[in-house]
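Hi there. Long-time user, first ticket. I'm pasting a complex I've been working with (about 1044 residues overall). I'd like to know whether the download I got is complete or cut off, because the file seemed smaller than I expected. Thanks.
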Amino acid sequence: MSTNNPDKPEETTRVPVLRPGYTFGSITDKIAAIALGRKTPIGWLIGFSLSFGVAMMLFYSIGVLLLKGIGIWGNNNPVGWAFDIINFVWWIGIGHAGTLISAILLLFRQQWRTSINRFAEAMTLFAVACAGVYPALHTGRPWLDYWLFPYPNTMGIWPNFRSPLIWDVFAVSTYATVSALFWFVGLVPDLATLRDRAKNRTAKIIYGMLALGWRGSARHWHRYETAYLLLAGLSTPLVLSVHTVVSFDFAVGIVPGWHATIFPPYFVAGAIYAGFAMVLTISIPLRKFYNLQDFITMRHIRNMAKIMLATGLIVAYGYMMEAFMAWYSGNEYERFMIYNRMTGPYWWSYWSLILCNVITPQFLWARKVRHSTTALFLISLVVGVGMWLERFVIIVVSLHRDFLPSSWAMYAPTRYDWMMFIGTLGLFSALMFLFIRFLPVISIFEMRTLLPESKVKEEA
Amino acid sequence: MAKRPEIYGVVAEFEDPNELLKATRAAYEAGYRRIEAYTPYPIEEVSEAVSPHRNRLPLIVLIGGIIGGLAGYALQYYTQVIDYPMNIGGRPFHSWPAFIVPTFETTILGAALSAVFGMLALNGLPRPHHPIFNTPRFELASRNRFFLSIEASDKKFDREQTKEFLASFAPRDVSEVDW
Amino acid sequence: MMDAAYTAPPELDRLQQRALLVGVVALGLTVAGAFLNREQFFRSYLLAYVYWIGISLGCFAILMIQHLATGAWGIVIRRLLESATRTFPLGLVLFVPIALALFGGHLYIWTDANFVAHDAILQDKAKYLNVPFFLGRTALYFFIWFVIAYFLNKWSRQQDEASDPKEMKRKMQDLSGPSLVLLGGTMTFASIDWVMSLDPHWTSTIFGILFMGGQALSAMAFIITMIVFLANFKPMKEVIAGRHLNDLGKLMLAFVMLWAYFAFSQFLIIWSGNLPEEIPWYLNRLSGAWKLLAGAIILFHFILPFFLLLPRKANRNPRLLVTVALLIIVMRYVDLYWLVGPQVSHEVGGKMNAAFHFSWMDIAAPVGVGGIWLWYFLTQLKKLPLLPINEPQLEGALGEGAGHH
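Hi, the file is complete. Here it is re-exported in full:
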């Protein structure tokens, strides 16, 4: 693949992306064993059952919602969007880090991506699945959701393409499709490895069908690599566009607190921020329990911490600009919006958000913190909470007091709101557990290319 | 159609990518054309040695993207301007700034679908069975072994000579592979 | 290896002399213009000033980014970037006419007491938009930029002789992170003060980012032009290789796309919102001849460079790369002209002057300021070797370029 970049800063060159001493065979065996192992680890069983149980809360609330309607949520007038859209934006943002790790870092020839891209992409897919639940359900009659798509119908009408909500339909469905394809294409050669190594006949047949008959032919590899690179090139602008469109859902409206031109870059940065926090939250325990420290090295962890710091600073810049421009605009509604955020009934959410998203990541300036997995794990959890609060502040706090004081109201989530949110957390981790058990968590064929003996020597 | 040869071909098995590359280049120089290398990971030089041809995939992706974009914009233009024009907040029927967003998405979708399905089509996949799988120990091609096959349908193919030719590169093993 | 001193080629002297000559003549004409039409002079001068200080600041940001990102592309252009950051003293001197405009009540409508007396919002905003605070802020921006640029340049110079170049490198890296944050903050407020406040009622939260994106793009185009020029002569002839240009070209493409993304985001949000306090800003810029200019910006500031830079081969062709870079250098100016042109002005009684107007000073001023700037930049460039000779990663950065041995 790429040539080794000789100019790495000192801090990062000290720890390699792969611990020396591995061979083609041992890398293959170690990673494949996680998926092919006959005995399911007891920890996995407990973790999976727990997540699956929590996911049941989601399915139960969906059942109730289908029977009774969205009145079971706390949404009201004027807070017409609340947990549904908060959670949608939160989940979709988390998904973005996966695509970015895969695509952008591939384009920048950053080899450290190799060991984390696979599960980061899986994370993307599962996060998008969790995100998709909300817009699908919040329509009230989800069985009519296909009305969102432009198809010739007996009513003779079409969706309104001037609305950001229809842009969202296009953006999110394209994103889900392309992420799934990107992930699957990346998996094909590894599925062939699992097919060739599986002892169990059923496993052999299933992996064999999924591998599409991949045989590692040189001609195939050539086109495969081109396709993969092109997909990376396409995914990069796509992932930026998705959160941009999500930000348009708010920004093209005129509600104070929503209508801000900075929303697109600031939402994208926030998405990457939350996403990398989630990758850290997952990879720190994962590498410990499955002994993957040789593959997911401290260098990965540190690089992700740096990206979190950078994106966290962009998000902080966004908060600063919102507050300054609200004052500078001289517009009384804009000024009231920011005043209400800071001192209104939801003041606690704004200041917790500043604490989680602006103050906490400043610890990442310290090398010592970036070297401690415990500290990073805690910070990444705090950032995850902070990014959720950010959407709460933007959505609920902007809506609950807008232009007309007579229509102000307070919002409180119901138990169904909470059950659905916690349920998606369960669904997400249950899917992650399944993925870890049945598919290679690390791209095996790309890890092979990291070995020194993989490079052929050019003879003159 | 030409008569099918008795066997699929002759396959040599290597442990080192450099030996595979050397043998592949030599085979091409010796005039063999129906050759194929099988490796556990992509090796640019080997792909180059097997078939030094241009790759049509970028063109397919470009065309796919253009079709996706045009179709996306046309859909919006047709539905919002021609078929059912509606005044929405006083915005023009042809609201091109708004239409750019879905057009962008359909462009990416068209290009991505062409990349994946174009690659599969050019590679002739999915194809669950292939004679090369009859090679002994071929399951290691997805682990740590490197294989070079010369098919019997090659004009220059001769069962014994070709075997000797491959054996001259000191592979781990040379075997005849049945259909 | 070859000439290890990497001294500047004599061709730079010729360029420098010409730049000075052109600069002095054009600036002289512009100053003469000040006596013919003062309002126009200040407007054209602001445009020229913002354009060229933007290149210094763009280089400043790229310098810090390359310290943090560390790639071969960054090492070969580092001395160019550093020289651009040493032009800040000139930038401060050139700010004097703008300060004069403030005291004379020119250029910025909020400096006109009569006008503000009839505008409640501007009276309220006077807490921020007043002359002493404006000048104080500009002084603060320059102070911060001076300090950072001073240390980055000092350590880079010391690195050339240092016995432990790695220590200097670490110092520069450690400073670059926080400095980038400071630069982002100061640059945002500078763009609000210098440009956005020309229309004191209009606001856009993305403006600072859009402005910085434009600066990074101008700076990248300038650096590519310079490096391709230098690659014609020894010693850089042996140094600059396809892969360096490839990386620089890709970065320029990325900046083109980012700029377009920011610009389109701002436009779409304001267009969709259609609010009376925001949309006039675009309505004025999309009326009459301004509309043609807007079309030209879409075409030549985004679409054409995008498609020229997209093919992989394009970035290894120095002639094509330099053509695109020059196109961008021109289009950056057109974009700023479009941004600054239709503004609230005294000429029409404090209303929006949306009529298209173009003066010879709009050409003379940027050429004049640019000539002086380039002359000063080259003076700085010649002071040090063209490459950081003691940089630990220099060899790796040159490795493939100078032929692999």
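A couple of notes from our side: The first helix of chain A runs from residue 10 to 13. Confidence is low (pLDDT under 50) at residues 1-14 of chain A.
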